[in-house]
Structure formats: C-alpha cells, structure tokens
Amino acid sequence: MKREIIITDDGSTTIRIPDWDENYHSTHGAIQEAKHVFIKNGLDLFQNQDSISILEIGFGTGLNAFITFLETINKEKVNYVGVEAYPISSEEIAQMNYVSELKAEKYQVIFDRIHSCDWEIQQTINENFFLTKRNQFFQDIEDKNQYDLIYFDAFGFPLQPELWSEIIFKKMYDALLPKGTLVTYACRSSIKNAMLSVGFSIEKLPGAPGKREMLRATKNV
Questions:
Q1: 71 backbone dihedrals φ, ψ, rounded to 5°
Q2: How many CA atoms lie within 13 A of 211 on its CB side?
Q3: Sign of dihedral through CA atoms 60, 51, 121, 221?
Q4: DSSP structural state of residue 21
Q5: Whole-angstrom distance, CA of residue 46 vs CA of residue 114
C-alpha cells in the first residue's frame, strides 16, 4: 500500500496513507500532538517514580519513543515496549525530521538506535532506557500486570473500529499494573463506553491542537 511523507502544521513529518485517507500523526502537528497526549497527560504523571514501564500501541515512526527518551534523560529508568504490526521502512525512517525539529541533534545516534535495533528482544538504548519492539497484532497482546502507562496510538476508529473495542481494551486493562494509566488522542463515545465496560475510570481532557478532547483511562484496582 502506498505511503507518503508529509509535513504537519508544526513542521514535523508524518506518514500518510492516501488510499485510507489516514495519517500516522495529527496533521495539525505530529510533535505537538505527541507531547500533549502522551507526555503532558501521560508520562508527566509519573515524574516522581524511579522507574516506569510503558507499552505503546502503534510504534510507527518511533516519535513517541524518542520524545519519551528525551523527556526522561537523567530522570527515571524506562522500560519501553512498542507494538507494531507493520513496521515502516528504513527509507521512511530516514525522512523523519524529528531530531532536527526537536533540536536534539546530539541524540541522533539514539534515534538511529531506536530504529536499527533488533525486534523481539529487549535492547539497551542507553543506561536508563530499555526498548523492546514487538512485531505483533494488537489482538495478540497477552501481557498481564506489567505496565504503568499505555500510549494508545492506533489508527483512528473510522478506519479500524476493531482496535477500539471492548476486546482490545480488556487486553489493555489486564496489561496495566494496579492504578495504571492509558492515554489516547481519541474521545469518541463508543470508545469511552468500551473502556468503561472493562473497568476503567475515564477522564475527558482538552485535546491536542485541532482536536477538542482526548481520553485518559485509569485501572481501578
């Protein structure tokens, strides 16, 4: 399926799939969406912990993983698991401009390592950041009580509603540690109801630029 690189409104790149009319990140700004949804309303809740375990649903371009690395330098230890059914190519990775847009040129080697390291086995990105990339369908996730935080960054509901179902959110609920948190850019009523049905408590929060609201879900036990 054809994929093309586009520039979003904040100057950062993303991947567009024309046949699906779908983008990997918000066209209003890939970086600003990642920082708002996953960092401000997710990672920042865990600032006072010595370590944090994160599951990302939709590893994609590696943007969320790289920003998480930048945000946790000299802070907490991070165990990061990124699940992706269809990894992007090295040619596409080379066209992502996140290092320059984040003014993180000194960490170019880290961005490269995030993408070049092997899949299916935990890799040491640096002394505090450990990454496992899993080439896996979300429906096959069976983790139990492992994560403090989930970045839920799947393709949108209109394209793949099955990824926003009770079945998937039960898997997310089970994967979280007690009082763990899931954050996502979406805020559709059916998504909220699916989360509630499996036991999450829900908060509606202001969305990233271009989107009115987002959801944060907390495991109640």
A1: -75, -20
A2: 25
A3: negative
A4: T
A5: 22
The C-alpha angle 1, 84, 54, rounded to 5 degrees, equals: 150
Q: Please count the residues of the chain.
A: 221
Helix intervals (H) in the chain: 30-34, 63-72, 90-94, 98-101, 108-116, 166-175, 189-197
Q: 145, 176 in Cβ contact below 8 A?
A: yes
> Rounded to an integer, what distance in angstroms lies between the CA atom of residue 96 and that of residue 88?
11
**Token couple for 18:** 């024309």
Burial pattern 172-185, b for ≥16 Cβ within 10 A else e, equals bbbbbeeebbbbbb
Q: Can you give the pLDDT of all 221 residues of the chain as single tens digits? A: 799 999 999 999 999 999 989 999 999 999 999 999 999 999 999 988 999 999 999 999 999 999 999 999 989 999 999 999 999 999 999 999 999 999 999 999 999 999 999 999 999 999 999 999 999 999 999 999 999 999 999 999 988 999 999 999 999 999 999 999 999 999 999 999 999 999 999 999 999 999 999 999 999 88
d(CA 107, CA 218): 33
List the structure tokens of 151.
């970045």
Q: Which two tokens stand for residue 175?
A: 């994967």
Round to whole Å and give the CA distance between 81 and 221: 22
d(CA 139, CA 171): 8
Q: Cα angle vertex 177, ends 149, 218, to 5°?
A: 60
